[in-house]
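Allow me, if you will, to draw on your knowledge of protein folds for a short while. A protein sequence and the structure tokens that stand for its backbone fold form the material at issue. I would ask you to consider whether the tokens describe a fold that such a sequence might reasonably adopt. Thank you for your consideration; the sequence and its tokens are set out here:
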Amino acid sequence: MSPLVNSAILLDARTHVGGGEPMSAGQHVTPEHIEAMLEAAGLAERGILPGDIVLIYTGWSDHYEDPDTSGVYYSMAPGLSYESAQYLGERRIVAAGLDTPFVDAVAEGQLAGTSPPPLGTPVGMVFPVHEHFLTEVGVHTLEGRGPQAQGNGRRRRLGLLRDGTTGADKGWSRRSDQTSGERDTIALESLPAYYSVA
């Protein structure tokens, strides 16, 4: 797969949706949440542009363990609502990513078949965000535990580099401070191979 070299927006749903706590399993990030996060970051006028990568920090990565002894991180998670997938697709983004194992919201017990998908999931669709992105609008999905960095809405350049010896991805991010023009490069943790563009 070719690298994605695009502008990216990092939105902090943990702060603006979760009130500073990780979002709950099955909880949706809605278009209204996205617009409020853009507003809070001072990016409402810019908005989301064609070609952007939209990264959403939900705080769910707090549940990540290696090895996964509690069985929480991979069994449920918050995610985008179907309406958010349509909203982002209409803006012609190239990729969307969350610090979750899925881009869809997954309720506790859903994967085990003991509970239905979260309220608001279209009838007859289990993973509607994934389906819409990959089969209807061609948006890449970034799923996994990183980057674990709180977002402030500033524009970032994000790179995921494949390490041929370990199979792991390495990430880097360059933030441009839109007010002062300062730039800094932030080294992100080594990302596991499953954090990839699907």
